[in-house]
Amino acid sequence: MKVIEIIDLHKSFDDNYVLRGVNLEVKKGESLVIIGGSGSGKSVLLKHIIGLMRPDRGKVIIDSVDLASLDEDGLNEIRKKFGMLFQSAALFDSMTVWENVGFGLRRHTNLSDEEIKEIAIQKLNMVGLVGVEDLMPSELSGGMRKRVGLARAIAMEPEILLYDEPTTGLDPIMADAINDLIIKMRETLSVTSVTITHDMRSAYKIADTIAMLYNGVIIEKGTPDEIRNSDNPVVRQFIEGRAEGPISLEGIER
Amino acid sequence: MIVKIIEFIGSIAERPALGLGRIILLLFSILRWMVRPPFDFRNILTQMATIGVNSLPVVLITAVFTGMVLALQSYTGFKRFGAEGFVGSVVALSMTRELGPVLSAIIVTGRAGAAMAAEIGTMRVTEQIDALETMATNPIQYLIVPRFISGLIMLPALTVITDVVGIMGGYFVTVILLGTSSSGYMRATWDYLQLGDIYSGLIKACFFGAAFTLICCYKGFYAQGGAEGVGKATTGAVVYSSMTILISDYFLSAWLFR
């Protein structure tokens, strides 16, 4: 069953034509990883999936509902199916850790503060954090912030998790711990997930399917093994991390 | 040639027109979300404390010294033609009609408005506003509506305090320092002060409260480009709010005191 379906998605900002006809689908329970260079439009694509941006042309369909057909309330109903982990974690810095994690519960349920705090602590334990609930986000390290962000993303028990560069800016050990958490979330919560990253180690580890975004379109899609053995020169250059090749680097003369 | 001139005018007018359009749309959004549940009373109270209660010390000091200097200047001036008896009236009318609302609005803009623009701007550039939306929370309803309501309520409240404290400052200088009669000052205050003076000042205060929260939230909400963008948004918020307050003050006065 298709949970997410993207059909011929186009988006441009002024003169910058970012997405030029993206087609993509994600099945229930699948872990899709979208790879691509900086500025390739990965984040823009992710923001379309959760309706933070509206397409210029094309469709985004979530659980058979076209997002373009929804008003603000309808969109908010759909968004309750999602949890999103932002690249910078995007924790609310005026609130404590548990208030961050319990934000959605406070807004959308009638639970008391005590009950919300209890759930928040339980979600924090799930991501391996103990005793941090009363701290402020500014008191946490980068890796801890990401984990609080993850706890917040899963607090409302979403069906779909979106990860925006989950391992960027972390040391290799913490990055791998986050990868393990992403796998654990999928196994224990049986969620569908979409991750965007340029970290190939992470992509191979967490993906069922990897899709590469280049020049505004998906140029290759397959299992991690298929991507590893791809003969597309663009894909090869990217996964091997070489500066020489068909991918042009903006502002660098060769 | 003519095309060039039109293009030139267009290029100058484009950005202000875009800004004005957006701010009007934002105002309509705020009004629409104000009347829709859930009503976040906790958030509104927090903002009322930030805008109102926390601004109180600086507003009090400004008000008392403004009342004092007003009394001092009018006393020395009026003495030249023997009209010292009217100092109380001048202080009372100036404070209630003009200085109470304008001074408190300018001070609250510098204090709370700047903080508002900086906070919302930072939330924008660090994706916290996106995070709100992903959690099915409208950022206008969650962030801007409580601030707007608080501005609308707290600025008139501060204005009442400013009026009273300013008149007390005038009393202190005229009666205690300059030694004129207490009953004379009070009579001068009450004889010429009408309820309409106080009302009109409060109407102004409501308008200023709405205007500065709208402008400061707008600037923060559309901030972009990291720390520099937040800085620019904050500066712009204070400059445009202050200008709007001072310019609209003239037109509101012209309308209210026809």
Task: Give a written overview of the molecule.
The complex is a heterodimer of chains A (254) and B (258). Chain A is built from ten helices and ten strands. By secondary structure, chain A is of the alpha/beta class. The longest helix of chain A has 18 residues, at 172-189. The mean pLDDT of chain A is 88. Chain B is mainly alpha-helical and 258 residues long. Chain B is built from nine helices and no strands. Chain A binds chain B through residues 47, 50-52, 72, 76-77, 79-80, 82-84, 86-88, 90-94, 103-104, 107-108, 156, 162, and chain B through 38, 119, 122-123, 126-128, 130-131, 133-138.
Q: Order of strands across the biggest sheet of chain A?
A: 6-7-8-3-9-10
Q: What is the CA-atom radius of gyration of chain A, in angstroms?
A: 19 Å
Hey, roughly how much beta strand do the residues of chain A contain? 25-35%
Unreliable stretches of chain A: none
How many domain regions of chain B?
1
**Percent of residues of chain B in helical segments?**
over 70%
Might you state the CATH topology name of the domain at 30-41 and 79-240 in chain A?
Rossmann fold
Element string of chain B (H = helix, E = strand)? HHHHHHHHH
Tally of individual helices of chain A: 10
Average per-residue pLDDT of chain A, rounded, comes to 88
Based on secondary structure, the structural category of chain B is mainly alpha
The chain-level mean pLDDT of chain B equals 91
Main sheet properties of chain A: 6 strands, mixed
Order of helices and strands of chain A: EEEHEEHEHHHHEHEHEEHH
